[in-house]
Amino acid sequence: MRPGPLAPLLLAVLSSVACAGAPGPAAAPAPQARAGACPPRPACDAPPPAALPRGFRHTRSRLVASGWPRHRGRDLFARPDGPQWAIAKFAYGPQDDDLEDEDVEAYLLRGCSGAWERLGTLRTSDDDRPHPTAEGIPDTGGRVYLDLAAGRRLDVGRHRVHFAVAGDGTSADLFVEVLPPGARVAVTDVDGTLTSSEVAVVGELFGGAPPAAHPGAAEAMRALADSGIHLFYVTARPEWLVGSTRAWLRRQGFPPGILHTTIGVTGAFGRPAAEYKTIELGWLKARTGIVPSFGFGNMPSDVTTYTAAGIAPSRCYYYKLGGDLRGGVHHDDYRALAPALFSPPAACAP
């Protein structure tokens, strides 16, 4: 399904950062390990099988693919005995034109190690034959839905699924974190909370430098990861920025985690952003039974979201945010916060 002609200007930005192929540039140098810390989550950066383009099934697909690829996969938390899906969207160009009724090859890097497993060939959906909604993701065309629980069930750990378009070899990746009993999760916003400003990404889209991270923000998130806590990066950015957001987190040294954006092409702001994030945390609780142990934000909408989700106010940290924090903690320096966030765990998840 294509966006309307009055979609915001972001849709017209020519930007390679919008692509969502391989995991992206090398991560920042690994920091010195903390005594008693859990091992770092795997980077899951093994090169996928080489794509061998064999042409598109439809002439219209060649026209659609003349734009730059904006494919993206949907990361997920899961339980070992619960639903496990790999869902991706394939689209091109500034209007996010769907690639419909075309073949996509699927591969799995189980446990982020060993050899890639071929999962088979899927076909992207179209508006006439939509797939039923799964994991809260409605089918708007150009999507693939792969039920991993049907004969491919994943064990506890981190896994990567790689999709390659048969027509031209372009690709999308996603990550699935299968959580053990007792797992803990920390949720954090991205723009303004981790990045240097609420709108820093806009400058990058128009050819500027990528936004900086707040000093110490990556260190603070690593303190949680070292404590055995899983990271959930939740941003109201549009879906086509999944790839660039994941690459930015990696470059800045943030620990691997699950990344969610909105599923639209325009993103969300203000009240719609709060509603979106509330739905996301509701999904997390419904699928895993987990209420996050920590929350990080910088806007009143984050206060609203974390309060509604039931996160303990004393573990909600708001960067340079005044007003009514509903018992949350104001802070203005992640470097001072990081040491207090590390707690040596009794056991580490696989």
UniProtKB/TrEMBL annotation:
Q: Cellular component per GO? A: cytoplasm
Cite the Pfam families for this sequence: LNS2_PITM1-3, PITM1-3
Keyword field contains Signal: yes
Q: Which terms are listed as keywords in the entry?
A: Signal
Q: Write the signal peptide boundaries.
A: 1-20
Q: Where is the LNS2/PITP domain?
A: 185-332
- Gene3D superfamilies membership: HAD superfamily/HAD-like (3.40.50.1000)
Q: Which domain of life is it from?
A: Bacteria
User: In the UniProt record, does the keyword Cytoplasm occur?
Assistant: no
Which terms does the record give in the GO molecular function aspect? Answer: phosphatidylcholine binding; phosphatidylcholine transporter activity; phosphatidylinositol binding; phosphatidylinositol transfer activity
Recorded hits in InterPro entries, A to Z, give: HAD-like_sf (IPR036412), HAD_sf (IPR023214), LNS2/PITP (IPR031315), PI_transfer (IPR001666)
Q: Return the PANTHER family for the record.
A: PHOSPHATIDYLINOSITOL TRANSFER PROTEIN (PTHR10658), VIBRATOR, ISOFORM B (PTHR10658:SF11)
Give the protein name, as stated in the record.
Answer: LNS2/PITP domain-containing protein
